[in-house]
Design goal:
Bound molecules: adenosine-5'-diphosphate, magnesium ion
Number of strands of chain A: 5
Radius of gyration of chain B: 14 Å
Strand content of chain A: 15-25%
Oligomer: heterodimer
CATH superfamily of chain B: Histidine kinase-like ATPase, C-terminal domain
CATH class of chain A: Alpha Beta
Structural class of chain B: alpha+beta
Distance between the termini of chain A: 27 Å
Number of helices of chain B: 5
CATH architecture of chain A: 3-Layer(aba) Sandwich
CATH class of chain B: Alpha Beta
CATH topology of chain A: Udp-n-acetylmuramoylalanyl-d-glutamate--2,6- Diaminopimelate Ligase, Chain: A, domain 1
CATH topology of chain B: Heat Shock Protein 90
Order of helices and strands of chain B: EHHEEHHHEE
Number of domains of chain B: 1
Shape of chain A: globular
Distance between the termini of chain B: 27 Å
Order of helices and strands of chain A: HEEHEHEHEH
Shape of chain B: globular
Structural class of chain A: alpha/beta
Number of strands of chain B: 5
Amino acid sequence: MKVSEIVEVLSARVYAGEDQLDLDVQSACGADLMSDVMAFVKESVVLLTGLMNPQVLRTADLMDIKAIVFVRGKVPSSDLVQIAKDSGMILLTTKYSMFLACGRLYEAGLHGGGIREIA
Amino acid sequence: MKLSLSIPWMDFSAAGKASAEVKKLLARLGIEQGLVKRIAIAMYEGEMNIAIHGGGGTADIELTPDLVDIYLRDHGPGIPDIGLAMTEGYSTASEEIRNMGFGAGMGLPNMKRNADELYIESVVNQGTTVHLVFHLNRKQE
Ligand SMILES: Nc1ncnc2c1ncn2[C@@H]1O[C@H](COP(=O)(O)OP(=O)(O)O)[C@@H](O)[C@H]1O
Ligand SMILES: [Mg+2]
């Protein structure tokens, strides 16, 4: 699914990476604990999180995650936006809760590929 | 090639920078992307452990044609029961740390999963050394 479609499905606001919205992602990962992201993400995914701090962006950068969605209408600080821009990431916010955001994306056709199987 | 980086204690604006730097360096050297990612994940978990649990320390990276060796050393409280610490979900991190997105208790398991070899030496009240080994020329998975 293209990130531009994700923007539509989540009625998202784009804070960084406006020029990269035709990026394709295989799946999504919804997580507030960064080790969970590192344990389960394999392919190119969009990260949905309720957590808003520089570590989220740093973790995403390490995992080659190019698109992040902050849920529940949180507004990123200008520092965060700058970090995202510097590392070439797409930063989105949505008013939907984690549950609804994930549900809407799933319903729109984004499924579980790219996530390591959980034993 | 050798590289030594320091990891400060509880400095969340710095934590993760050593791993990001190593990741960039390895990618620049042309090391295969999947391997670079495994190294970055394992080192990042180790770096966060030193920053959060270990009281700060150092990361020493040694690069040879066959191997990447990473030594993560601290002189912190040590790990009393390494077997327990390796259990998925086991964490002694505080609520405050968990609210920042850490303390999932998946760090050591993530290191084990991503490194080709993992050695942990730890003495209570003296510190911990985690040695991560990655094979450069062996096809993995
Ligand atoms: N360098 C270290 N020094 C002291 N204790 C450590 C160190 N690394 C790990 N530990 C202990 O092992 C536990 C499990 O570590 P880990 O799997 O990374 O999970 P987490 O960091 O999320 O707690 C930690 O909660 C801590 O008690
Ligand atoms: Mg950890």
